[in-house]
TrEMBL record:
UniProt cross-references to Pfam families, sorted A to Z: DinB_2 (PF12867), Pentapeptide (PF00805)
Domain named DinB-like: residues: 105-247
Organism from which the protein derives: Ornithinimicrobium faecis
InterPro entries xrefs: 5peptide_repeat (IPR001646), DinB-like (IPR024775), DinB/YfiT-like (IPR034660)
Top-rank lineage group of the source organism: Bacteria
Name the record gives this protein: DinB family protein
Amino acid sequence: MTRFGRDDDLTAAEFDRVDLTGARFERSRLRGVRITSSDLSGMVVRGSDVMNVEIDSPWIGEGDFFRVNGVDVIPLVEAELNARFPGRELQRAGDPAGLQAAWAALQDTWAATLECAESMPAGTVDESVDGEWSLSQTLRHLVMATDTWLGKAVLRLEQPYHPLALANEGAAEDGLDMSVFTTKTPTYAEVLAARRDRTTLVGNFLAEVSVGTLDEQRQNPWAPQHPETVRSCLHTILEEEWEHHRYAVRDLDVLEQRSEAQ
């Protein structure tokens, strides 16, 4: 176990893809510390300076609890996100009608966000905030999510990927053949066309899916040893959509504030 004491200065330290499982911070100052893409499972912070802290993770709700001063904040966070993004509460719908309603709500939400982005200064869709994906890259990644969980997992296509799809860093290490993807930066119009193609694919599938099909077994595309159902694959697509929409709205708000300040 590595131990840091009061003489160790971690001011503005950055932890990237670090395993902090079970880490414990006591009587520490965590101001300005940046932790990205790391495992914080089981982390405990006691009697420490954690003012002005921002946590952004799609997996908070998947744990048994996330306590702040003894209060489990998971239900509070979920309720607030559902209030901010109407339709998000449908992402775990179990029957065809519910899944269709969930997808329709997502399309309405994304349409409003894309319309907002188009009203912003030219080039906004390609701007990054704090090293995160731009809006254009986010849409490309959602093409990737659709191709992985619908095309590959559900439909079991031999080569499901659109050339403009954008994979996560490290996907090649997971066995993904990166040669199917373009190495050129597409135009935003090309990205929107790819995105429309894939949202239509999902919509058409949901329009015809039956309860029996939803119960059918599939393989997890990243971990074939773990079973999935068609339903759980669709839930993953919905989760990816809502989380990346939240990221997009968050970053567009920052870009809008920057534009107004100039």
